Request: fold
Amino acid sequence: MAEEIKTTRSSFPRNFWTVISMEFFERGSYYGMMSVLSVYMVLSRTEGGLGFSKESVGALKSVIVPMLYFLPIISGALGDRFGYRKILFFAFASMSTGYFFAGLSTTYLSIFSSLFLVALGAGFFKPMISGTIAKVTDESNSTLGFGIFYWAINLGAFLFPLILVPWLKSYSWSYIFFMASIGTGWLILLNLFVYKEPVREKNNKPLVVVFTEMILVLKDYRFFLMLFIYSGFWIMYFQVYDSVLWYLTEKVDMTPFNNVVNSFLGLFMSNPSWKFEAEHVTAMNAGAIILLQILVSSIVRKTKVLPTMIFGIALGSLGMGMLAIAPNAWIFMASMFVFTLGEMIAHPKFISYVGLIAPPDKKAVYQGYSFLYGVIGSFVGALLGAFLYVKFVEEQNNPSLLWITFSMIGVVTIIGLLLYNRFFVKPQLKG
Reply:
């Protein structure tokens, strides 16, 4: 076993492990902040929060989160033209500054501006890391390399919300933002003194050409229609960072689950008082992916693309709908697990589906723009989630309607994909 680990490590250059470290700390900082952001912003000022309305939080996140999915279109081209190292320096400086001022912010304008800087940096960061990995790996180790990359993302998203966030917020919610500022700020030093600019072909393509390509891709109405339909699943997904967290904090009694965990912890310490709170939803999602993604992917590896994708979305819809049963601790845990399982099944197959339906000479371009599902899903999801939560939960005291509505969005997504496959995909390309 030791020899296998040594062989794996030696098969990648130092630059690979440098960007993996960057990915771990950047994603850990981001998900650590995002795991509690929506709760912190609506929490009353007497409880240490900002006291904003849920609608205002939805409006903020409908701008901030879509940036993370849109900006890589621009930053990827800039990285090829000016160099990855320069773009990474800008990204880390922007994120660290944004997190720091977010920790100091008390007004809507100041927190919006601070998080805008965070999103700007994160959007520029993303393609530099995946681009570096692509350039320092080859056919013999590319699959393993990107597997480690995906694992690092989820390891950061697991450990930071699980360990650091609960500890920091016990002192002050602001410390979570300062932690994220340090977590991304020190990467400037790693970028300056350890990271090496990968060998690349200089790209002098003007940005106007980048936008022209995007318009040409989106003029393919079949492709855009598929992205629009699939974004329905991501409208559900983004509730995990908004309405699900509000529901957990305000309506769900997690005492039965806490008692079980504390009984176990009592074997190792005296009088444990652990509580399942908002940040643990993100940790649970990432932990499940770390443990099960390889197994799930191996099970569905040879299954047909579209039916598998639809099955995953069906599981996600079921998980969301289960929340409508009752504000029960065990139902909540089960629903989040079922939803995450659906995500693990559906999304990798979606990537395969894009490759299946894209024109043979445009597969790479289509894959590059396929993440626009996140722009649509996060924009609609943030606004719709806040609006429906206030309407169904706060005004009507009927949270079941909220979760049934989102579950039905999943059902509509499935129907849409079936119709799309039936009427818009050539017979020889059907999944």
